[in-house]
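Query protein
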Amino acid sequence: MSSSSSSNSRILVGDNEIISQNSCTSSFTGLTGKYSINMVFNGAADYKVNKRELRLHPENFIFLNNYTNYSSRIDSAIPVNALSVFFDPRFVQDFEYSRKSGAVLLDNPFDYKYENPVFVESIYPLQGALKDNLLNLAGLINRNTTNQLLLNDCLHDCLLNYYSIYNTEVVNRTASLKFLSHVTKSEILRRLSMAKDYIISNYNKNIRLDDIAQMACLSINHLLRTFKQAYQQSPHQFLTTFRLQQAKYYLRNTDYPVSEIVDMVGFECPSSFIRLFRSSFNVTPGQYR
């Protein structure tokens, strides 16, 4: 680990861990052993997960499994405020156990076989109750809270609300794929998640459909057909929607001129951006700001 940061806070909650940092330059390598939720409040952070290179932006988070070896890096002209929550596998196992039926909980409390759940590692939208949970955790860290009961409650709620997002983004999307085999559905959704993550990580660049298909190890036609089934949008429509959402973030949280935001999020023409923004949100960028 190396860093050049204005602040770096670390709180242990049992065997779980919460790290908040406000850094221009930092790097963490060889991370593994715990499940993790990672987010940034501003700027961006780069992650290398196996051979995948992901970029994390505000309004999103990355979830990683406990066995995954990965590294993260921040390199920014302005400090990036980032938050990572690390869950000990036993904490997640116990959470899984608590979600079982009452018969299992009462009749077989000591015979239950604990196993580490495996999640689809992906970039997810940060929204709803989970966003509130993580903002609350960041506030508690900034106030140097040491109340273990309160922090444990927050971590439990983070997992609970992550499961809700996972159900929407993975379980329901897997079910929407038109294949008979659940194994096939799960594998296709995993590959589509890699395509989606590639789009999100490179949303402000000129992305080619060939590159997306190659990242997902799918033919272009297969990608187009299954992506639409899972996300109810084509890859191009998904990219446009994400660019518009990022534009909303910049309009809401920065003072950048609209013309500069247009370039930052990857649109080439200000007039087409304004037209798309107005048709999507029923308001112009200036009115939204």
Observations:
- The chain has a mean pLDDT of 90.
- The longest strand covers residues 70-87.
- The chain has eleven helices and eight strands.
- The first helix runs from residue 89 to 98.
